[in-house]
Amino acid sequence: xxxxxxxxxxxxxxxxxxxxxxxxxxxxxxxxxxxxxxxxxxxxxxxxxxxxxxxxxxxxxxxxxxxxxxxxxxxxxxxxxxxxxxxxxxxxxxxxxxxxxxxxxxxxxxxxxxxxxxxxxxxxxxxxxxxxxxxxxxxxxxxxxxxxxxxxxxxxxxxxxxxxxxxxxxxxxxxxxxxxxxxxxxxxxxxxxxxxxxxxxxxxxxxxxxxxxxxxxxxxxxxxxxxxxxxxxxxxxxxxxxxxxxxxxxxxxxxxxxxxxxxxxxxxxxxxxxxxxxxxxxxxxxxxxxxxxxxxxxxxxxxxxxxxxxxxxxxxxxxxxxxxxxxxxxxxxxxxxx
Length: 338
Ligand code: SAH
Hints:
This protein is α/β, with parallel strands linked by helices. The protein is built from 16 helices and 10 strands. The strands form 2 sheets. Strands 6-5-4-7-8-10-9 form a 7-stranded mixed β-sheet, with helices on both faces. Strands 1-3-2 form a 3-stranded antiparallel β-sheet. Helix 12 links the parallel strand 4 and strand 5. The radius of gyration is 22 Å and the shape is globular. Bound molecules: S-adenosyl-L-homocysteine (SAH). S-adenosyl-L-homocysteine binds at residues 135, 152, 156, 179-181, 184, 202-203, 206, 229-231, 244-246, 249.
C-alpha cells in the first residue's frame, strides 16, 4: 500500500470515529433554532445566546465548528449567517434534516451510546438508556411522538410516491395500513384514488394524532382509524393489509406475532403488502446497513434480505409472490395467504 493510500485510509477512518462530535453540535444548533433566528438577520454568538438562553462562549465554539463544515458561515466580525445547508435546519424547511437534528439529541444519540450493551445482550440500547421502550417514550414525552410521525413522513414521502407510481394499487380493494403512523401511505393513496377508502391501525395515541390530521384534511370519511396493539390482534375484514417500515422495528420472534395476527385477520384471496428496504449484498456503502444499526439499537430490530423476508412470511403462513422495485430503496413485497 502506498503512503498516500495509507494516509487516505486513516483520514477516512478518523472521520468516521469522530462523526459524533459534529452530529451533536448540529443537534444543539438545531434544538436552539439557530437557523430560524439567523433567518431574521446575521447575528453574533452573544446575540444568539441571549435569544436561546445559552452561554455565549460554548455556543460560539459549537457554531464555529459546524460553520467549518459549511453549516452557517461566520464573517470577520463574528456574525453568523445561514448557508444553503443550514437553511434545511429551519422549522419550515422541506426534508427530514431538522427533525433528525432534534431527535438525534433527544433520543437517538443516547440509544446508540448503548450499542455495546446491545451487542452483548441483544437488547435495545434505547431501553438501557431511557428505562423504557422507544414507543413508550414517544407516547410519554409531550411533542416527541408528533415529531417522530413527522420524521416518518419527511423521510419516506418521496419513496411512497414512487411506490404508488410503480405498483398498481388500483385493485387493492379495502386496505388497512397496519402501524400506519400519521398515514403517509394512506393519505397518498386517498389522494391518488378518489374512490378508495381505507383503514389505519396504530397505537392509541398515534391513532388519535392521525385522526386529527385526517380530520383537518377532510379525509376522515374515507379512512377508518382504529387503535390497539398489533401484538394482540389486527382488525379483520380488509382485502389488503399493508405494513410499511414496521417489521424492521422488531426481531424475528416479534415479527412472527405481527404476521400471524395479519394471517388471522386476512381473508382468502387477500393480499399482504410489505413496504421495506431490502439489505443489499456486497460491501458497497449502504445507508440501509447504517439504518439497520438504528433499528438494532432502538428496538433490537433489523433490516432484512429478501431471503429473510421470505422465511418470515412462510413461517406465518404467507407465500412471497413477488418483490417490486420502486426505483428508490423502498421495495414492495407482495405476499398471499399460502
Ligand atoms: N407505517 C408508518 C409508520 C412506521 S413507524 C410509516 O411508514 O410512515 C412504526 C409504527 O408502528 C409507528 O407508527 C408506531 O406507533 C407503530 N407501532 C409500534 N408498536 C405498535 C403496536 N404494538 N401496535 C400497533 N402499532 C404499533
